[in-house]
Write a structure and sequence with these properties.
With 131 residues, this protein is an all-alpha fold. The protein contains six helices and no strands. The model is unreliable at 5-14 (pLDDT under 50). One of its GO terms (biological process) is transcription by RNA polymerase II.
């Protein structure tokens, strides 16, 4: 079998592994959880009415879950191309590299996580046990 046919075959294996496996495991988990209680608050924060219609909330929740599932699938495909078993933050950055707003938000959140972790470590290190 020549290389191009082998690559296509391996690509199909990756598609089946990552696509179907994510669809069964990860996507099911996301879709089974309901985020309905927090979605109206988010919608209100972005300028919607205080009590949005139930179908609007459900539609937005569906869009968000589909976006997350698609993003994770793309990250998994990139990780597979890089010969890694699991995606990491660099795969996420690669997938969203063209959307500067999302990429800047990821950098900001990572920076804040580092600050929080350092602060937590400093507080834990200086805490003395009570006698």
């Amino acid at each position: 079998m020549n290389n191009s046919k082998q690559e296509v075959k391996e690509g199909r294996k990756a598609e089946l592994y990552f696509g179907k496996k994510l669809e069964r495991e990860f996507a099911w988990l996301l879709r089974s959880a309901t985020y309905i209680p927090i979605v109206p608050a988010i919608m209100y924060g972005f300028g919607d009415v205080c009590q949005p219609r139930r179908d609007s909330v459900t539609l937005l929740e569906t869009y968000v879950i589909d976006f997350i599932v698609d993003l994770v699938e793309k990250c998994s495909e990139v990780a597979h191309e890089r010969k890694r078993e699991r995606p990491d933050i660099n795969d996420l950055k690669f997938v969203i590299r063209k959307d500067k707003k999302k990429l800047n938000r990821v950098h900001y959140l990572l920076r804040m996580k580092r600050i929080i972790d350092r602060s937590r470590f400093a507080v834990d290190r200086h805490m003395l046990p009570l006698k």
